[in-house]
Amino acid sequence: MEGSLVKDNPLLLPLNNEKTVYDGFVTVQVTQLMYVGYIISPHKNDSPKSLEKCTLHCSWQLKHLLHGYEHIVKQRLRQSADLVSFMLELKTVLEVGLKSRPECSSIPPPQYYSQLISEMETLGWDKLLFIDTEFRTLRLKAQDSSGRQHILTVKLNTLTEAPECSADLPVPLAITWTPQSTLEQLHNQFLQVLESLTEFWDVLDEIDRNTWILEPEKPSRSNTMRRIAIGNNISIKVEVDPRHPKMLPECCLLGAEHVVTLLRNKLNANMHSWNPDSSVFHNLRDVLEIEFPSPATHGKSGLSVECGICYSYRLEAAIPDQVCNNPHCGQPFHQACLHEWLRALPSSRQSFSIVFGECPYCSKPITVKMSAQKS
């Protein structure tokens, strides 16, 4: 009996001389799925015809797989003639359980864990920020040449299949992978991507340090847009190209029309003098012929004006971006607030996606374009 047991279950070994206590692994199906557990067999003086006194202790994976089949296991323990027969029947139950629970078959073999540990030792454990309990999802840290910290999230299936990789980047993360690739090679590719974007982040970091950013409220490394305060109710939205960060960005001036027109004329007249060897911040300052309010010289409270309708600055993710063009008014509004206000007025009218009405403060003509969800 012992020979057959060892032959069929080479990783299930006796722990005592009487060979009544076994500990180890059970191999199920050709996927080499391993389940930890140990079996305490009945004493030799007990009836050889029954394993009724046998107890089975196992890992959570095995318990999960046997859920719903416990009565069958207990029945086979009572009816099996010996441990060899019981182990054969237990494997049959496990295979049935695997077929009915496909998610269990995703548990990797022991070689997966040993290879993963070996690759992490080569990469360096100091690069590991997080690993989940299933050893499938890893978060690796990396630093670019300017000292910025970045995180690469890696979701593994096996160590030979291409993993799912993601990071906070302004461009798609393209990773080259072969069955021979390692985590160290993956990490090195990520570092190369970071270096290709270093100039882009340098440009935006300089803007963030020297201006008041109205949007986004908390910029991430993937954001390419900045809405920069120029003055009270006046701002410029710039879209920086990650591949050509020092070239003239796409610009959109926001605010009262009489002020926007003046700045737009300066931008059009001076854009030929844009110097790609200089920074975007200095170029914008020179082309617009202005000094941007900075955190060192101005308080943001003077630039963050509340909506004249809801009396708040932020409405979910939006800030007031509609301004009355009357130079003596200049009251800002959220687009959604102004649209709802004008739509409720009997005197307002609509032409296509534009609503025409009167400013709630000065009664001068004002218009608002309906947002996409309102059109």
From TrEMBL:
<keyword id="KW-0833">Ubl conjugation pathway</keyword>
<dbReference type="GO" id="GO:0043240">
    <property type="term" value="C:Fanconi anaemia nuclear complex"/>
</dbReference>
<dbReference type="Pfam" id="PF09765">
    <property type="entry name" value="FANCL_d1"/>
</dbReference>
<keyword id="KW-0808">Transferase</keyword>
<dbReference type="InterPro" id="IPR044037">
    <property type="entry name" value="FANCL_d3"/>
</dbReference>
<keyword id="KW-0863">Zinc-finger</keyword>
<keyword id="KW-0234">DNA repair</keyword>
<dbReference type="InterPro" id="IPR043003">
    <property type="entry name" value="FANCL_d3_sf"/>
</dbReference>
<dbReference type="GO" id="GO:0006513">
    <property type="term" value="P:protein monoubiquitination"/>
</dbReference>
<dbReference type="Pfam" id="PF18890">
    <property type="entry name" value="FANCL_d2"/>
</dbReference>
<dbReference type="GO" id="GO:0008270">
    <property type="term" value="F:zinc ion binding"/>
</dbReference>
<dbReference type="InterPro" id="IPR026850">
    <property type="entry name" value="FANCL_C"/>
</dbReference>
<protein>
    <recommendedName>
        <fullName>E3 ubiquitin-protein ligase FANCL</fullName>
        <ecNumber>2.3.2.27</ecNumber>
    </recommendedName>
</protein>
<feature type="domain" description="RING-type">
    <location>
        <begin position="307"/>
        <end position="363"/>
    </location>
</feature>
<dbReference type="GO" id="GO:0005737">
    <property type="term" value="C:cytoplasm"/>
</dbReference>
<comment type="pathway">
    <text>Protein modification; protein ubiquitination.</text>
</comment>
<dbReference type="InterPro" id="IPR026848">
    <property type="entry name" value="Fancl"/>
</dbReference>
<keyword id="KW-0832">Ubl conjugation</keyword>
<dbReference type="InterPro" id="IPR043898">
    <property type="entry name" value="FANCL_d2"/>
</dbReference>
<dbReference type="GO" id="GO:0036297">
    <property type="term" value="P:interstrand cross-link repair"/>
</dbReference>
<dbReference type="Pfam" id="PF11793">
    <property type="entry name" value="FANCL_C"/>
</dbReference>
<keyword id="KW-0539">Nucleus</keyword>
<keyword id="KW-0862">Zinc</keyword>
<dbReference type="InterPro" id="IPR019162">
    <property type="entry name" value="FancL_WD-rpt_cont_dom"/>
</dbReference>
<dbReference type="InterPro" id="IPR001841">
    <property type="entry name" value="Znf_RING"/>
</dbReference>
<keyword id="KW-0227">DNA damage</keyword>
<dbReference type="InterPro" id="IPR016135">
    <property type="entry name" value="UBQ-conjugating_enzyme/RWD"/>
</dbReference>
<dbReference type="InterPro" id="IPR013083">
    <property type="entry name" value="Znf_RING/FYVE/PHD"/>
</dbReference>
<keyword id="KW-0963">Cytoplasm</keyword>
<dbReference type="GO" id="GO:0061630">
    <property type="term" value="F:ubiquitin protein ligase activity"/>
</dbReference>
<dbReference type="Pfam" id="PF18891">
    <property type="entry name" value="FANCL_d3"/>
</dbReference>
<keyword id="KW-0479">Metal-binding</keyword>
